[in-house]
Design a protein that fits this description.
By secondary structure, the protein is an alpha/beta fold. Helices cover 32% and strands 26% of the residues. Helix 3 runs antiparallel to helix 4. The protein starts with a strand and ends in a 7-residue tail after the last helix.
């Protein structure tokens, strides 16, 4: 079968690349061995947000009295119903991709794809049959899977990954979470809110270690207030399973501690799916488990491209999608602008939420900038007080010389929705005074952005 473009993998990188290629007039095939939509739609971004919404609703109900609402009787959680809703949402989204493929005349071939030495794609289908596809352009978008620690392998039963955490039949009474990146803290927050006793262990000195230090402190404060036990600068050396109990041996700064839980969730990162897809046969360059590409995602082999979690860029769904668009537009002879990876937003959907873009305060200083820092707490926001969510802040970093926005960190309710304004501001090279004089509606949480900019320049009104 001959195509203009073959995409191996249908996650947020692969399916977006395929649709954009079709829009540009290409005949496109997508090879997928599992669920359409990849990890994000089926086992990551979407189902976790459905779970987190259930946690948010429960938290709101429990705090109803502070809003003048009286709820009588015991508040019960139907854990299996919460999980079912999450799976239903994921399945609906996957069906949406099916619709988009049909709308855009994209050929979906279900099976495991592998590149051959003559740059074809051999697909082994589930029934054992083989199909050979040909194209002058092939995009590798095979994504990633949960990383396993050699001394604590995931067994899917007592030591689980995010996949099992999304489909548990029964809610554990106690759980230990290894790793405090986005996946770790989101699932830790979900289970803690639903009543599981959660212990969070982070190897580095603080949780969400890639974020601004003040954001780490704010989230840790909220987690501890909710009853979560947190170890930082600590390592789980081993896990012994005795019957139904997991005994985790944690090396801390104060010595070894043993924590007993029902389950251990391993959330220590992801590993790119680059094995057994033909990279060696073609001599495609790989370094540190990632495929090497140029700014338009071309590998060292002509006609072979790679996007998303298989390349050394941020492992985020929205990054993979934009990489796919840039890649196919270049293939189509357009003149796309390479992605500026310093302007990639990140979002963590805990309570409070955490969102950021650009440089942190520490990173800006280390990069040699002379900076102005503006910070506005939500305790001073009328909308935040009215909503009952005053935790968090908006923190903006400006270049003192030119006034350009260098970075932003937001912690609080709905900040994952607010961060987009600052991404656009950075893309347009907006200055602090331009933010100050951009009138924001009142009362809104977004006013905190304007106020933080004003605080950096000594013009803040409400502090």
């Amino acid at each position: 079968m001959q195509f203009d473009l073959i995409v191996i993998g249908s996650g947020p990188g692969g399916y977006v690349a395929a649709i954009r290629a079709s829009q540009l007039g290409m005949k496109v095939a997508v090879v997928e061995k599992a669920e359409l939509g990849g990890i994000c739609l089926n086992w990551g971004c979407i189902p976790t947000k459905a779970l987190l919404k259930s946690a948010e609703v429960l938290s709101t109900i429990k705090s109803a009295q502070q809003y003048g609402i009286q709820i009588s009787g015991e508040i019960k959680t139907d854990f299996s119903a919460v999980i079912k809703r999450s799976r239903d949402v994921a399945q609906m989204m996957s069906k949406g991709i099916q619709f988009l493929f049909k709308k855009n005349n994209i050929t979906l071939i279900e099976g495991t794809g592998k590149l051959t030495a003559d740059k074809k794609v051999v697909v082994e289908k589930k029934d054992g049959s083989i199909e050979v596809l040909e194209s002058s352009h092939i995009i590798i978008a095979t994504g990633a899977r949960a990383k396993q620690l050699p001394h604590i392998p995931i067994d899917g039963n007592k030591i689980i990954s995010y996949r099992e955490a999304l489909t548990l039949q029964n809610q554990p009474k106690k759980m230990l979470v290894m790793g405090s990146g986005a996946i770790g803290v989101e699932l830790a927050y979900f289970y803690q809110t639903l009543g599981t006793e959660v212990t969070l262990v982070e190897y580095l000195p603080r949780i969400i270690p890639l974020e601004d230090e003040e954001a780490s402190k704010e989230l840790e404060r909220a987690f501890k207030k909710a009853g979560m036990k947190i170890y930082t600068g600590a390592e789980v050396k081993k896990v012994e399973i005795e019957g139904n109990i997991c005994k985790s041996f944690i090396q801390t700064t104060k010595g070894e501690e043993i924590v007993e839980t029902d389950l251990v969730l391993s959330a220590v990162g992801v590993t790119a799916n680059i094995e057994n897809i033909g990279l060696e046969e073609l001599g495609i360059r790989v370094e540190k488990g990632k495929i090497l590409v140029d700014e338009f995602y071309r590998t060292n082999v002509d006609g072979i491209y790679a996007i998303g979690d298989v390349i050394p860029t941020p492992a985020l769904a929205h990054v993979a999608s934009h990489e796919g668009i840039v890649c196919v537009e270049k293939i189509a002879g357009k003149n796309p602008k390479p992605i500026n990876y310093r302007r990639i937003p990140s979002a963590i959907y805990t309570s409070p939420e955490v969102a950021s873009v650009g440089l942190t305060e520490k990173a800006a200083i280390e990069a040699g900038y002379e900076i102005k820092v503006g910070k506005f707490p939500f305790t001073a926001s009328g909308k935040a007080k009215a909503s009952g969510h005053i935790a968090g802040f908006v923190k903006l970093i400006f270049d003192a010389k030119y006034g350009q926005l260098l970075g932003a960190t937001l912690v609080g309710e709905h900040v994952t929705e607010m961060i987009a304004e600052l991404v656009v501001a950075m893309e347009l090279e907006t200055t602090g005074h331009e933010l100050i004089h951009s009138i924001h509606p009142h009362p809104t949480l977004s006013e905190a952005i304007m106020e933080a900019a004003a605080q950096a320049y000594g013009e803040v009104i409400h502090l």
